[in-house]
Design goal:
Strand content: 15-25%
Largest sheet: 7 strands, parallel
Low-confidence stretches: none
Pfam families: Epimerase
CATH superfamily of one domain: NAD(P)-binding Rossmann-like Domain
GO molecular function: aldehyde dehydrogenase (NAD+) activity
CATH class of one domain: Alpha Beta
InterPro entries: Epimerase_deHydtase, NAD(P)-bd_dom_sf, NAD(P)-dependent_oxidoreduct
CATH topology of one domain: Rossmann fold
Mean pLDDT: 95
Organism: Dactylococcopsis salina (strain PCC 8305)
Strand order of the largest sheet: 3-2-1-4-5-7-11
Order of helices and strands: EHEEHEHEEHEEHEEHEEHEHHEHH
Structural class: alpha/beta
Radius of gyration: 20 Å
Number of strands: 14
CATH architecture of one domain: 3-Layer(aba) Sandwich
Protein name: Nucleoside-diphosphate-sugar epimerase
Helix content: 40-55%
Distance between the termini: 37 Å
Amino acid sequence: MKALVTGANGFTGSHLVRELEARGDQVIGLVRPTSDLSRLRDCQLSLVKGDICDRATLETAMSGVDTVFHVAAYVELGLVDARAMARVNIEGTQAVMETAQAQGVSKIVYCSTIGVFGDTQGRVVDETFSREQAGFSSAYDWTKYEAQQIVDQMATQGLPVVTVLPSGIFGGDDPHFGKIVKAFLAGKLKFWPGRDRATGIVHVDDLVVAMIQATEIGKNGEHYIISAGELTIGEMFDFLSQKTGVATPKEAPPWLIRSIGNFLTPVGSILRWQPPLSRERVHYIYDRCVRVDATKARTDLNWQPRSVESVLNELIEQQKNNASR
């Protein structure tokens, strides 16, 4: 297989590249000219540098390609440039899909997010769920939802595309929760907000397997939720504490967290700074809950992810290894 991976230098993209190369597939990676390529160290892929919206660049990247994995996205919560995010997530997705269609690519896998379902208010939903939330919780939710509409519309017109919708993506080099685990192991987390917030978890390598399985047996136009299970934030920290002996963080007072978010939001806007807490991030902590059922992927894609506990154990070991270097 000759495959194009957009966003090849990112967390998910780089793991996908390494797995494809391990299978013996020929890989092309689309990256921005200014991208940090450290995650692709020792990889053999061919790189095409350019803008995700530039059709000429996309045509070059897709030349002779059998499969396109569209992973590139602008992912951020808090204070963001919504216009720039829309350009990458919406216009970029449309450009990728239309170019793939014009190039006659035989299979496309689009990496979406369970966020397209909106706030399910704690209900566990599957791929048949229709979004009920009025409005959007963030620019990220809005742009990924609109991108999904483009993908689905083109699928009805015959585009051979399959959508995977991952929950929270974890791994040893996880740029998000990995940093939290590092701080936890160092004893620096005394308080943490939202212990009751449920979070879906999938290991990045299991997501990669699901994406490859989607190219082989996934049905065109179908959606597949990719999640190994869920824990609340409190349960995650309790598990980490049990395994390491480090005290679990105490619950930070919600009124205090909301006050800090309200204060830092205008400060961040004035200073063009992304604060650790903002109104949007606080909203995700306390007011929005998306829970999902990934049975369809397990049955239709023969997907067998590692357990949530295994994912967390790996995070602990990876961070310990990093600390000892």
